């Protein structure tokens, strides 16, 4: 059977399996597991609490960077568990900015976009807490992909997030469209 066959269904990726398991934890309201995920974010000495909840959904040879991304996103999920997928991070940040007052969120977003991959935990944790307090659900599969590719030299993840957050609200005019054409 090939991908063009109408009955073809691709097997879920490791990330899809993990995120589905996380959504299941939220749907079942598994408080012990969610607490373990939250605790795993506090410091590296507690990271082991998330291992059985996360690593069982990943292939053995997935690589350390991918495991780290999965552990981070699972810990963030523990802070703000939702039983269904929400918005991509940039869209969620835009929604949060419309509900929160002050320039603090904008500064946090700018700091996030400038941070190195090793600093994502410190920048994402307070933003996910704010999303929880404002009841803004997140798309954790997309967040996992963003975290995985955060360090790409082209910075395409950061540019997409910035576009989702700050892209102009006014629709383009015919003149704008013509100016962008070669």
- Return the CATH class: Mainly Alpha
Number of domains: 1
Number of strands: 0
What general form does the structure show? globular
Distance between the termini: 42 Å
Provide an overview of this structure.
The chain is an all-alpha fold and 182 residues long. The protein has a single domain, classed as CRISPR-associated protein Cse2 (Peroxidase, domain 1, Orthogonal Bundle). It is 59% helix and 0% strand. The chain has ten helices and no strands. Helix 5 runs parallel beside helix 9. The longest helix is centred in the middle third of the chain and has 16 residues. The N and C termini lie far apart (42 Å).
How is this fold's topology laid out?
Layout: H1 14-28, H2 31-40, H3 51-54, H4 64-79, H5 89-99, H6 104-114, H7 120-133, H8 140-148, H9 156-166, H10 174-180
């Amino acid at each position: 059977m090939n991908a063009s066959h109408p009955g073809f269904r691709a097997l879920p990726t490791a990330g899809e399996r993990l995120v589905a398991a996380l959504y299941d934890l939220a749907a079942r309201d598994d408080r012990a597991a969610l607490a373990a995920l939250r605790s795993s974010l506090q410091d590296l000495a507690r990271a082991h609490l998330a291992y059985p909840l996360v690593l069982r959904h990943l292939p053995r040879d997935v690589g350390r960077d991918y495991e780290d991304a999965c552990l981070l996103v699972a810990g963030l999920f523990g802070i703000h568990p939702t039983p269904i997928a929400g918005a991509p991070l940039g869209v969620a940040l835009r929604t949060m900015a419309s509900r929160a007052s002050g320039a603090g969120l904008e500064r946090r977003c700018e700091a996030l976009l400038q941070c190195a991959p090793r600093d994502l935990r410190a920048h994402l944790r307070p933003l996910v807490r704010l999303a929880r307090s404002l009841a803004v659900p997140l798309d954790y599969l997309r967040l996992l992909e963003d975290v995985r590719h955060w360090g790409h030299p082209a910075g395409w993840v950061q540019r997409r997030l910035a576009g989702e957050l700050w892209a102009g609200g006014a629709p383009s005019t015919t003149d704008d469209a013509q100016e962008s054409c070669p």
